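WP5 quarterly update. Target: Cytosolic Fe-S cluster assembly factor NAR1. Source organism: Lachancea mirantina. Length: 461 aa.
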Amino acid sequence: MSSILSEADLNDFISPGLACIKPVQNEQKRPENSEDALVVGKEPSEPQKVSISLQDCLACAGCITSSEEILLGRQNHKVFLEAKSNFTAGMSLAVSISPQCRLSLANFYDLSLDVFDAAFLNLMLCYFEARYVVGTQMGRTLSISETNYELSRRKTLDKYKKPQLCAVCPGFVLYSEKTKPELVPHLLDVKSPQQITGALLKANNQNIYHLAVMPCFDKKLEASRADTEGEVDCVITPREMISMLQELNLAFSDFLNGPSLQDLQQRLTPEGWNPRLHWVSNSGSSSGGFAFQYVLNEQRSNPGSEIIQIMGKNADIREYRLVDSTSGQVLASSSEVYGFRNIQNLVRKLGGARRTSRNIVITRKRASEKNASDSKPTEPEPARTDFIEVMACPGGCINGGGLLNEEANTTRRRALAKKLDTQYSTLLPQTECSEEFVSSNRYKFSAIQKSTDVVTVGNTW
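Structure tokens (predicted):
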């Protein structure tokens, strides 16, 4: 699976693994020896030795182009350390970390979440001299609110087509732009929590270097997009963080004894921010809860309605339906679709020649005639819902390729992801994503509807 990439050869194509859902049709030879070659090889089993591999490059475990490999090379802990050493007068460091990364690192160090959070804040303050250290919930709350606002706005348009697709997963956005341009009009143009957090941190001070700790390598490519306006300067994963600390001969345990978590949060929170709000979470999936939050928001406008949850044949497909309690009419619907195999099935259904409209009415039967559960739908239909929360990683962001899940055994790996998913819903306090958080700023990005880049056009996956 090893390949050698030359920075001068930007029109190559890296062969995906045998399990790739889109096999290569035309292979191109790659140079075996070249100066300044970049090597993409098998991911080492030890977490401290981090590299971008074909298994981990993109969430689909498929393929990246050499130009993307170069962008990834500019987003790593060595680049961060070099930039930090060259800070000019007045330059400050801001660090953001996603809840999935916090749980993964806490599990790796065998610490409770609060103890890990305090040690992480202490590390960033004392060693890296960070001015701000924040969670990403503030950015996510705005992203969810913007998503709900945009969905409501698009419903009023004549050209409205459902389902609308969540665009916070850069792996899925890249997949759509490269191979399925017909999906691009369905993508919501709302930025992800990572980018909105960066925009908030730099809103009043551009002399800030923003380091983001994120669960997958795709986030590096997202931060490198031309329309992100420098909101994130560098993205590293938990794996890379472990490598960085080892290279610096730093023991994480040395930072366990410090100020209290509350004092650290107060000290490292930006001016005007609630010190606790950006460290909490919200109801819904461990990938952000965008699908559930949409239906929950619609329920606020429909008193007397109820939310029905429908599980798919596998755990990576789920649908939420907002149903009128009296008539059984479906008022709103959304779904979660994770993993590229499920995404492929979704794309086939969306591209079907015939799409019939539905008018689902759930018949309410008396208990004496039939169990009430029999009247509820048993099969999710993501392609027919209003909105889909799409994530490239199987299991969603809690199973991101950059997290510290080194289990070689698939069963144990899934068990760890499930454990983290459970901790996500039980250990993180939850907040409401209400309309009061909607900002006057519109956090938009522009998906490429038809790429003219030679690398993208030459891609055959």
